[in-house]
Every structure is written in structure tokens, then in C-alpha cells.
Write a structure and sequence with these properties.
The protein is of the alpha/beta class. Helix content is 35%, strand content 25%. It is built from 6 helices and 7 strands. Helix 1 crosses helix 5, helix 3 crosses helix 4 and helix 4 crosses helix 6.
Length: 189
Amino acid sequence: MTEEIIIAGFGGQGVLSMGKILAYSAIMQNQEVSWMPSYGPEMRGGTANVTVILSDDRISSPYLKIVDTAIILNQQSMDKFEESVKPGGVLIYDPNGITAPPTRTDIKIYQIEGTKLASEMGNKKIFNMIILGGYLKIKPIVQLENVIEGLKKSISERYHNLIPLNVEAITIGMNNIVPYKVETTVFQN
């Protein structure tokens, strides 16, 4: 099994930490992992993305042109990475701030209202865990107990009291991701 993922959005959305938690979770399952972040000089508010590769075999290169899954959290990332999903692959996106939804019909597309759900939970910082939960519902490639271990490894010990809130956010994400159907217009003469 090999899963190649790109997670992309604005700095401050937890894009890099979502990838890091996913990577640590796979390490807990004795998988090979590559985690390669990329972000603009602006950091918070600028664009950020991370490629994550999880595999049962050795990973030859962290560089990806096409991916199995794209998790898209803003319009610039949609414009840049929608086409990088392999035919038959998965695209997951939060519609908040997306003005042009995905249009491909050769991939599976899912929508999750992470921004809205995080706001309803009263903590915008758990947005990324809601999105991660949605992803894990579609592709359960790491077990929840390993995600909890991944959280422990990637966040400072002084914030470990927030792990139950993060697990709750993951569960909410799992319960709120829905398939998205691309609108196709049929012209008749």
C-alpha cells in the first residue's frame, strides 16, 4: 500500500501540522513516511502545502507530480492542485472560500464544511482535525489510536490536555464528509 497526498491551503489553517500528524500516525503503524512542507515567506495567511507519502515499502522520492488524494482548503490551492489528482483518485475540500468548485468527473470528490463545524464547536484551531477526520473516513489508512499517538508526538506536552477535543473533532469530521457531485450542463438544440 502506498498513499500519496497533498494537503494545501492558507498558512494558519494547520495544513503542515495535519500532514505531520498523519505522518507520525503512519510511523506508529511501522510504515515508511515522507513529509515535505512548502510555504510562502508570509507564513500565516500565505499559501502552504505539504506532501505526505505513506507506504509499506521504501519511498524513493518525496517529490510528487500526481497524487492519490488532494485535500484542498482554499481557492488558490484548488486552482493549482485539482489537476494533480490521479484519475480515480480523491479530492476533499472545504467549500468555505472556494469560489470555483472542482469540475473533474474522473475523480471522487468529497466536501466537508470544516470551517463551519469548527466554528460550531467554538474552536477554530481544530479545523484541521475535522478535515483529517473526513479524510480518514474516506481513506482509513491509519488507525485512530495511532492518530492519538501522532498527536502526542506532534504537539507540545503542555497541550496534551487538548487531545480529547482533537479526537472529538476527528469524529465530527468522519460524520460530516459528503460526496460532491460535479454539475454538468447539457446543451440542447
